[in-house]
Amino acid sequence: MRDMAKNRFSSGDGPSQRQLRVGELIRRTLSDVLLRGEVHDPDLNRISITVGEVRTSPDLKVATVYVAPLGGTLGGEGAEAMLAALRRHTGELRHHVAKAMTIKYAPDLRFRIDETFDRLDETRRMFSDETVQRDIARRDDEDEDLG
Question: Pfam families from the xrefs (predicted)?
Answer without folding.
Answer: RBFA
